[in-house]
Amino acid sequence: MHRCLLILSVLLIASLLSPDTQGFIYREFTIQEILDGSTNIAFGKIKSLDTKRMNAIIEVEEDLKGEKLDQIKLNVATGWYVRGSSPRKMMGLLKVGMPLIVFYQQTYVVEGLGYFDGTWYRNRTGDPEGWWVFTHLCPYMERTFNGTTMEFREVIRSIIAGERWVGAPEDALKVLALTGNTTVMPANSPVPVPTNTASYEYNAIRAVRSVGEKTMAYESTQDRTLADLDQVDILWIGHREVAYNGYLLDKATEQKISEFVENGGVVIMSGQDAGRDNPVEIGWLGGSLQGVERRPTQEFVVTKQGQNLFTEPNAVQSGQLYIDDAWTGWDSSFQVFATTNDGKDLVVGARKHGKGLSIITSLRNDNEYTVRVNKKLIENILHYAANQIP
């Protein structure tokens, strides 16, 4: 188990920091992923700067995960001259006394990410006590966090302490994603990793920052007991979290989800993976519906009820989705938004229960490509769900 976790962490850091990735970052990483992939989280400050030699000495004050270094010696002169980054630009941002955070992982080399006041940068070294090489600034990482260093330190402490919704506005709509309990093949890697480590689906939903005047806040969990579900507005059940080589929810969780919807919550269920001789039942949903194995398709028909869902805010037409194992056998309690297989299978539908709503999809969101194809409808579904919350 420990060896497996080490391999996964190495893959995370390698993919995050690979110089071959377009724009430095090939997908948005969450703070939790960075914390999980780091063996060390160093809090420090700039002790001295040498503008002529273009280097900086970082005094390490504490390390939240690993053995603390006394200092990190950063050679800025080695940096790349690429769009948005150069050694001179980096030196111009640094000031004596400035607080920093350095996330890094010690394996056969040390790969790291540094952060200060909205700026992310990459560094690495073969010897932690020697000189660390600055390679480039990472402007796209601002999507992960872009506040002050001291604010970020408090966020990190809170996350490590197990708190949720850190930094979320009080009036934000809270979206909890159940994800990470099955494995997928991430891009450019032959090794399966947990879906919350290569969660293209989770990052696609997190890209929806607001709906109208409503701010959206996101957290993910692998805990199928769904603790604190009563604090959530929208529950996203990730691809294969209901069924993958068998049904995966117990009666207690089914009851909790049912009560969540009855009390006004909205649950969105991404696709399942039924076996050929093992159809999927979903007792928590109510009504009549069954998950069955189907061949992948991109063809579907939108119903009159589904016109708004497939046009707001994005127009999504047949051929522009990736659909797999489907839901079938629904009854009149369901609103049907789109079908496939000559109207026999549900692509997207919904069922009201009490004050809330359940939205069911047959989307296949299991890898980078399928999520990229489905991303527009994912955004539409979140907009539709948010507008159901008073």
Contiguous uncertain segments of 5+ residues: 1-26, 185-198
CATH superfamily of the largest domain: Class I glutamine amidotransferase (GATase) domain
Domain count: the total is: 2
- What's the total count of β strands? 21
Average pLDDT across residues? 86
* The CATH top-level class label of the largest domain: Alpha Beta
What CATH calls the topology of the largest domain is Rossmann fold
How much helix, percentage-wise, in residues? Answer: 10-25%
Number of helices: 7
By secondary-structure content and strand pairing, the structural class works out as alpha+beta
By CATH, the architecture of the largest domain is named: 3-Layer(aba) Sandwich
Radius of gyration, whole Å: 23 Å
What is the molecular shape? elongated
| Largest sheet descriptor | 12 strands, mixed
Task: Describe, in plain words, how this protein is organized in 3D.
About 20% of the residues lie in helices and about 30% in strands. It has about 400 residues and is of the alpha+beta class. It has 2 domains: about 1-160, no CATH class; about 175-385, Rossmann fold (3-Layer(aba) Sandwich), CATH 3.40.50. The strands form 3 sheets. Strands 8, 11, 12, 13, 14, 15, 16, 17, 18, 19, 20 and 21 form a 12-stranded mixed β-sheet that branches. Strands 1-2-3-7-6-5-4 form a 7-stranded mixed barrel. Strands 9-10 form a two-stranded antiparallel sheet. Strand 11 (about 210) and strand 12 form a beta hairpin. Helix 5 packs parallel to helix 7 (about 370-385). The chain is elongated. Residues about 1-25 and about 185-200 have low confidence and may be disordered.
